[in-house]
Specification:
By secondary structure, the protein is mainly alpha-helical. About 55% of the residues lie in helices and about 5% in strands. The chain contains 16 helices and three strands. The chain binds acetyl coenzyme *A. Acetyl coenzyme *A binds next to helix 15.
C-alpha cells in the first residue's frame, strides 16, 4: 500500500473515507435511503419527528417511543435567555445563516451535557438542537423585522410550530404537512459537504455543538445549501422574462451556473427534486403562484435542452431547484431558505456526529488528517537545499 494517495483537485469525488449506516445514495439510479428506508416511502408516510428518531437511533419509533421523543423535543424548544438577548444584539442586516451559526456556541453554553462523552448525552444534545434551531430561525426573522418574538406553542407539531412562530398564526394543515415533508426530504444525504464538515470536527473530539456550527457554515455556501436562495432570486427575476431559452443559453455561454441544477453524486434526477416538483405544483395552485411554478418549469426545460446540446445531460434539477419555490409559497423569505434546510439537516448532522464519535459503523474512530503538497517558499532550514525565490532572481 502506498503511503500517499494523490487525489488532488477532485473535491474528493468518488473517494470513500468512512463506512456509514445512516444513509445511502445510488447516484446513477436516483435512489436515496435513510437507514434502509426509501426516501419516497418516508416522505409519503413518515413525519419529520419519526425520521429524526430513525436517523439518530437507527430504527423507526413505535408509538410510545415517538410520543416520548416528540415530547422531549417540545420541552426543549424554549431558548435560554442569553441566546434570545444575543439575537437582539445582532445587526439588522445580519444573514440568517450567520446568526444561526453564531447561536450554536451560545446554545452549547446552556447545555448541561455539552462536555459529556456519553452517548445518551449526545442524543439529548441532538434533541435540543433539533428543537431549538427552528426557534432561533423564526426569532431572528421577527427581530430583524422589528416584530416581537413568538414563543413556541406546545400544542403544535414541529412544522406547525415553526410556521406559527414565523408568521404569528397557526398554518393551514396542507402547509404544515408540506413543510414537514420538506424536512423529511432534507434530513440526511450521506457525506455531503456540511455533513463531512461536522464529522471532521467531531473526529477531533470537539463537542457536538462545534461540529454543528461547522456544518452550518459549510451549508451556507451557494454551491451547497445556499443554492435555494439563489434559485428563488433567479426565478423571481425571470418572472417577466419572455425569452428564458436565450437567458439560459447566454448564462451558460458566459460560463455561469444555473443554480439548483447538477449534483456531485446524482447523475440522474435527484429523487427529492421529483417529490418537490409535485409539491411545488400543488402549492402553486393552492396559493395562486402558478406564474412562479411555470417559470421554474420553463427554466428546467431550457436548461435541460442546453445541457444536452453541450454534452452534459447528467445535469438535472437537484433538491434546491423546487424546494425554493415551495418555501416561497409558504411565505418564507428567500434569505431564510437555507436556514430551513439547516433546521432539517441538523438531524442528519447529529446522527453522523454520534456515528463518528462512537465508531458505530467502522470501529475505532480516527482523526481526519489528509496531506497537501507544499508548493510555497522554502526557508533553508533543516538541510533544505531550496533557496527562497525572490523578485529579480
Ligand atoms: N450549471 C451549469 N454548469 C454546471 C452546473 C450548473 N448548475 N453544474 C455543473 N456544471 C458544469 C460545470 O460548469 C463543469 O463544466 P466544465 O467541465 O465544462 O468545467 C461540469 O458541469 C462539472 O461541474 P463540477 O462542479 O466539477 O461537478 P459536479 O457535478 O461535482 O458539481 C455542483 C456539483 C457543485 C453541485 C454543481 O452541479 C453546481 O455548481 N450546481 C449549482 C449549485 C447548486 O445547485 N448546488 C446545490 C447542490 S445540492 C446540495 O448541495 C444541497
Amino acid at each position: 500500500m502506498p503511503h500517499t494517495v494523490r487525489i488532488k483537485n477532485t473535491g474528493l469525488r468518488g473517494v470513500t473515507v468512512a463506512d456509514t449506516k445512516i444513509s445511502f445514495i445510488d447516484g446513477d439510479r436516483g435512489i436515496l435511503i435513510y437507514r434502509g428506508f426509501r426516501i419516497e416511502d418516508l416522505a409519503a408516510h413518515a413525519t419529520f419527528m419519526e425520521v429524526a428518531y430513525l436517523l439518530l437511533k437507527g430504527a423507526l419509533p413505535d408509538n410510545r417511543e415517538l410520543a416520548t421523543f416528540s415530547d422531549n423535543v417540545k420541552r426543549a424548544r424554549g431558548l435560554p435567555r442569553h441566546v434570545e438577548k444575543s439575537l437582539k444584539c445582532c445587526p439588522q442586516n445580519a444573514k440568517p445563516m450567520d446568526v444561526l451559526q453564531a447561536s450554536i456556541p451560545m446554545l452549547a453554553m446552556a447545555d448541561p451535557d455539552f462536555s459529556s462523552e456519553d452517548k445518551d448525552a449526545h442524543i439529548r444534545m441532538a434533541t435540543r438542537l433539533i428543537a431549538r434551531l427552528p426557534v432561533v430561525i423564526a426569532a431572528w426573522d421577527r427581530i430583524r423585522k422589528g416584530q416581537d418574538i413568538i414563543h413556541p406553542d406546545d400544542n403544535l407539531s414541529h412544522a406547525e410550530n415553526f410556521l406559527y412562530m414565523l408568521h404569528g398564526s397557526s398554518p393551514e394543515q396542507t402547509m404544515a404537512r408540506a413543510l414537514d415533508v420538506c424536512l423529511v426530504l432534507h434530513a440526511d444525504h450521506t457525506f455531503n459537504a456540511s455533513t463531512f464538515a461536522s464529522r471532521q470536527v467531531a473526529s477531533t473530539r470537539a463537542h457536538m455543538y462545534s461540529a454543528i456550527a461547522a456544518a452550518i457554515g459549510a451549508l451556507s455556501g451557494s454551491l451547497h445549501g445556499g443554492a435555494n436562495t439563489e434559485v428563488i432570486k433567479m426565478l423571481l427575476e425571470l418572472k417577466n422574462e419572455r425569452n428564458i431559452n436565450r437567458w439560459v443559453k447566454s448564462r451558460l455561454d458566459k460560463g455561469e451556473r444555473i443554480m439548483g441544477m447538477g449534483h456531485a453524486v446524482y447523475k440522474t434526477t435527484d429523487p427529492r427534486a421529483t417529490f418537490l416538483k409535485k409539491m411545488a405544483k400543488e402549492l402553486s395552485e393552492l396559493t395562486g403562484n402558478q406564474d412562479l411554478y411555470n417559470v421554474s418549469l420553463r427554466v428546467e426545460e431550457a436548461a435541460l435542452q442546453e445541457f444536452e446540446k453541450r454534452g452534459k445531460s447528467t445535469i438535472k434539477p437537484n433538491v434546491d431547484f423546487y424546494s425554493a419555490p415551495v418555501y416561497y409559497m409558504m411565505g418564507i423569505p428567500p434569505d431564510l431558505m437555507t436556514a430551513i434546510f439547516a433546521m432539517s439537516r441538523v438531524a442528519g448532522w447529529c446522527a453522523h456526529v454520534i456515528e463518528e464519535k462512537f465508531g458505530e459503523a467502522q470501529g475505532k474512530p480516527a482523526l481526519y488528517r489528509p496531506q497537501a503538497d507544499y508548493v510555497g517558499e522554502y526557508c533553508g532550514l533543516m538541510g533544505c537545499t531550496y533557496k527562497p525565490r525572490r523578485k529579480g532572481n
